[in-house]
Amino acid sequence: MAEKSRIGVTGLAVMGANLARNMARRGFPVAVHNRTTSKTQEFMKDFGDEGPFTGSESLQEFVDALETPRTIVVMVKAGPPVDAVIDELAPLLDKGDIIIDAGNSHFPDTDRRAAYCQERGLRFMGVGVSGGEEGALLGPSIMPGGDPEAYAEVEEILTAIAAVVDDTPCCTHVGPGGAGHYVKMVHNGIEYADIQLIAEAYDLLTHVAGLSAPEIGKIFEQWNTGDLESFLIEITGKVLAKTDEKTGAPLVDVIVDQAEQKGTGRWTAIDALDLGVPLTGITEAVFARTLSSLRDERRAASTTLAGPTPGSGSNRDDLVEDIRQALYASKVVAYAQGFAQMRAASQQNDWNLDLGAMATIWRGGCIIRAQFLNRIRDAYAEHPDLDNLLMVPYFTQAVADAQDAWRRVVATATAQGVAIPAFSSSLSYYDGYRRERGPANLIQGLRDFFGAHTYRRTDSDGTFHTRWAQDGSEVSTG
Ligand code: NBP
User: How far apart are CA 55 and CA 49, in angstroms?
Assistant: First the structure.
């Protein structure tokens, strides 16, 4: 009888296939399976000699090929397919077997599936995996959540296949239940904000500084040698430098300006609204994609709605440096907001998230990997109970140094009619956060006027209501 496999992977599209190859290349015997059996056959033909694989045509064969207790990674399309696979697998498994959902599942679904598996004596883990196709093969960032004992049994494999930075694997147990998928969701949300900020910088460099795509590509290449050094800044330089084979124009100039999305940014924004956490950068990034998709409406509006036509009005070199600083400051705000959201979720769900560890495992393998994450890791090492990253001396100073440039960029873009929702909302958040007294007193006054919603006073405890429609006198309500 053939030797049993240490782990199984079902779902052999790009992510599952590459994760399975990554495991096998590190010496773990892997059983592979896909709903459409021709994909399993293709996988075995293309990669079967890369490592100790067992190809299985049916789920029963797949389950039988595994050592017990079994460990099965499900890497199928997020949503109903994950439930379908769990439903089919559950009757074939034994108590104590482990199902790992490594796709981009929504965290409440993960909690529900964990409960479903627990009722059947199975152990379930929701594991976030970032890094795309290449990361899955060469070393992703892995955010495992769920049963800690189950994690202890698969830790050896997950840490072996993860990216490594400074001898530290980009994988650590995140927390119970849906915590792993939650952290992956916020990671993706931050990725939305990062990408939107880059797009706004590109827009300003194109339409205000008057630079071509290859010229902007060189600027990003240079930015990647400083504070902004990151995977996304690096690949922006590469994308902008690419020439279209068909037309000879820069490729970006022939790509349709409609951004698509799969939902993780939207989930992050919705969750922030539910938690009551201000998450302006990521949320504006989601809305900017939504606005971009209204292409026909925008085309009609472009010849109807009035506004300035952007064009260079300032020294180009100064403007480029201002945009770099505005990008960095806005990025700090987006991360400060994302980490504040994870802190709030951790408190609400008793997850006990180690936010410094999240910054540590995002330093390699994933899409938002960046030098900058070392600063965030250090911030949480020094101040584990930090409310907001902006309050750490390094970030306080970084934003203080950048703020004049940031304000100039927002003012210039506004005057010249270039939409910068992420730059400007980040700056407004910063200005709102640093004010001891904002204008919400008036909001409370208005709410009390039209709905008797009451208000609190600065000079005495309790709640009050003014009899606006009667004699205008104030009454204490509690
Ligand atoms: P897809 O998200 O495109 O899913 C395709 C896989 O799902 C195929 O193996 C397909 O089997 C299987 N599947 C479907 Br669809 N419905 C099924 C069902 N009812 N029962 C069983 N299998 C079913 O694959 P992917 O792009 O490799 O992504 C996998 C997961 O990883 C997703 O959750 C994704 O969001 C996440 N993720 C993707 C990336 C990325 O860069 N692509 C990065 C990080 C995370 P078939 O061959 O029989 O149709």
Answer: 12
Nearest CA to ligand 1 atom 40: 132
Q: Which of 119, 184, 200, 221 is catalytic?
A: 184
Dihedral through CA 55, CA 56, CA 61, CA 67, nearest 10?
A: 40
Best residue among 35, 75, 77 to mutate for probing ligand 1, ranked by most atoms within 8 Å of CB: 77
Q: How far is CA 281 from the centre of its chain?
A: 12
CB 274 within 8 A of CB 373: no
Q: Which residues belong to CATH 3.40.50.720 in the chain?
A: 7-177
- Determine the Cα–Cα distance for residues 139 and 160; give it in Å rounded to an integer: 9
| Residue 259 assigned ligand-binding role | no
Count of CB atoms situated within 10 Å of the CB of 421: 18
Whether 107 and 182 have beta carbons less than 8 Å apart is answered as: yes
Report residues of the chain scoring pLDDT below 50.
Answer: none
- Nearest residue to 379 (alpha-carbon basis) of 366, 364, 398, 352: 398
DSSP string, 363-382: SSSSTT-BTHHHHHHHHHHH
* Catalytic-residue membership of 191: yes
HEC profile of 224-243: CCCCCCEHHHHHHHHHHHCE
φ and ψ of 196, to 5 deg: -65, -45
Residue 47 token pair:
């990669």
Q: According to the model, what pLDDT value does residue 315 have?
A: 82
pLDDT of residue 3: 87
In the CATH hierarchy, which fold is given to the domain comprising 7-177? Rossmann fold (3.40.50)
CATH 1.10.10.10 fits 184-433, yes or no: no
Strands 168-169 and 164-165: antiparallel
Q: Is 81 in the pocket of ligand 1 (CB under 6 A)?
A: yes
Question: CB within 8 A of 229, min separation 6: which ones?
Answer: 370, 371, 372
Domain with CATH 1.10.1040.10 in the chain: 184-433
How far does the centroid of ligand 1 lie from the alpha carbon of residue 12, in Å?
Answer: 8
